[in-house]
Amino acid sequence: MSTIDPSRLLQMRSSILNQNQALQRAAGRGGIGGAEGGAGGTPDFGAAINNALQQVNAQQSKASQITEAYERGDTHDIVSVMIERQKASLGFETTLQVRNKLLSAYRDIMNMPV
User: Which residue of 18, 45, 81, 106 is surrounded by the most CB atoms within 10 Å?
Assistant: First the structure.
């Protein structure tokens, strides 16, 4: 089994923290910067969802590009290929779960007695 490179772990940790901050900003919590969009300081839900979907799409495109580069033989770093593919997969799964929760909430609201 191979040894774990500490610099690689720190790089992955930094990437995860950056993504967490981006998700917090998209959720309207502001994160470190505290920037919120929309009118009157309220976060714009549609813009946050759109931004999150664009980030997931960009991650999937990046994973596809690096996978194609590996298949062509341009790169031999299978670790980075697999990490990018896992990031894309995780982003897609998260998007799917958010969609499922939103649909469930919509159904619950529609089934509420008036």
Answer: 81
3-state SS assignment for residue 24: helix
Tokens of 37: 């969009």
CB 66 within 8 A of CB 84: yes
Radius of gyration from C-alpha coordinates of the chain = 18
What the block records as the tokens of 100 is 């499922």
pLDDT of residue 26: 79
What is the tens place of the pLDDT at every residue in 65-92?
999 999 999 988 999 999 999 999 999 9
Token pair in block for residue 88 = 């894309």
- Count other Cβ atoms within 10 Å, centred on residue 101: 10
Residues comprising the chain, all counted: 114
pLDDT for 96 beyond 50: yes
Q: Which amino acid is present at 1?
A: M
43 CB-near residues (< 8 Å, 6+ apart): 27, 28, 36, 37
pLDDT value of residue 12? 77
